[in-house]
UniProtKB/TrEMBL annotation, chains A, B, C:
Primary location group: membrane
Record-level GO cellular component terms: plasma membrane
Name of the protein this chain belongs to: Uncharacterized membrane protein YeiH
Family note: Belongs to the UPF0126 family.
A Pfam family it matches: Gly_transporter
Length: 199, 199, 199
């Protein structure tokens, strides 16, 4: 496994935990928790794959992603007190997940021959639409429409990456720059409680 | 028409009736009832086909499914008093529909070369996601996240089927075993009011 | 650009404005407004493309559609007082948009080799499901399930078009008849406050 696959699985696992915790707050049963965890962790990538014409969608061909989701639900079900103590670690992994999902989304869209602008959109979709699907399944207005510089961080990081590779920067360097920017913007915006202006 | 097609159409028809009755409770107009009936009856199979890469989706190529949905809406609109008397019959056909949808979902996924685990998921998606789409369209938290051993019945029945064909059991025998298990679990769980534990 | 493309882009632009105004009423941030505008303007066509097996979906291959959506959001954000004065013009363009979306949906489905009945459905999906997705994103029961002869206008116009080309009528004539019928039905139904009967 490459470092990207490992981070991707880690992001999937942490997103599944966060989805499960939402399901627990709603008093869903185990099936509901699995669906919500699944949607949170793999929903963004699924929508991206459908839109760009990749089917069967990615996670169907690699059982590791299903294992990561089920492991996330299991951890959320049995180790909730430990999770409370690890909140900062989880937040960090969650942010790493967003960065990786953005990068993978961009790369998959470019590999389909789509334009950089559309690839950037697909990066953002990969990172944030899992949360949108989660909120719709829970019958709530998607959180991301109201709060936090979340999609903006993906937009900035993805743009850096695309500009980087366009200028011939080494791919790994461009990826690291993208990740650092996404993580940095998200950390700062959460610490300083910055949000996007309303329309 | 094979017996499977007939049961599939019967399931589609009964799901369309149940979707129409939900639309009626919400005071939707005829167009809304058609959409909700459609989503309930064919939504699960549509999502499955999109995820596994079958498009145009199945019902587009066989007008019988559209006819079954429209017939279900018509029956729900004009014969509601009779339907009340037939409640137990409808429940039975609904349960048969779930069993058939599970089987067809599994078989279609296997035919796409997907793994048994993913095929099992696609069987469950075929059977229960029509109801999830219906509840989202009606702006409600999906019922199935909170109540009834519904997906669990599909999981058990689908597992029996997959284990059966893996062990070389005759396909028809494995299908009958799957159907009986799904119908049996659902009947018992409704009679005894068993539900999945909360997460 | 053909006249059809121009009308299609105009429809996309006006649908994006209407989506943005809904997002503004919900106090969404700019990202939320972009997503809702996008879903309203391009959601119907996206669902159609996925169902009939066209991926990457249409707007990914033509940047003009993205520009039309972003322009719509910009206009909604900065010129809201002017928009209030132009309400009747916007309503007219919105209705033109519905007509064009219906026609394009039918033509794309026919080009995929689908039956006239399914093509008619895909025309209606193209025209009205953007609004359904918008309402789901805003956590509301889709407006169209309760109000206005909207889908019915598309049904009537689409039927005229299909009957026309079946009878060998010139394609342009059939398209104009379709547009006029959709615009006419919608105008009359809004003026006379006609709605579909409830189920």
């Amino acid at each position: 496994m490459t470092i990207i696959t490992i981070l991707d699985l880690l992001g999937t696992f942490v997103f599944a935990i966060s989805g499960s915790l939402v399901a627990r707050n709603r008093e869903f049963d185990i099936f509901g928790a699995l669906v919500v965890a699944f949607a949170t962790a793999l929903g963004g990538g699924t929508i991206r794959d459908l839109l760009i014409g990749v089917a069967p969608v990615g996670w169907m061909l690699d059982a590791k992603y299903l294992v990561a989701v089920i492991a996330g639900v299991g951890v959320a079900a049995f180790f909730s007190t430990i999770l409370l103590k690890l909140r900062k670690t989880l937040f960090l992994f969650d942010t790493i997940g967003i960065g990786i999902f953005t990068l993978i989304g961009i790369q998959k869209a470019l590999a389909q021959g789509l334009s950089p602008g559309v690839a950037l959109m697909m990066g953002i979709v990969s990172a944030v639409f899992g949360g949108v699907v989660r909120d719709i399944l829970c019958n709530e207005v998607p959180l991301i429409f109201r709060k936090e510089i979340y999609a903006t961080a993906c937009l900035a990081g993805g743009t850096i990456y695309l500009v980087g590779i366009h200028l011939g920067v080494n791919n790994t360097v461009a990826m690291v720059a993208c990740m650092l920017l996404i993580i940095g913007i998200r950390l700062i915006s959460v610490m300083k409680k910055i949000a996007l202006p309303k329309i």
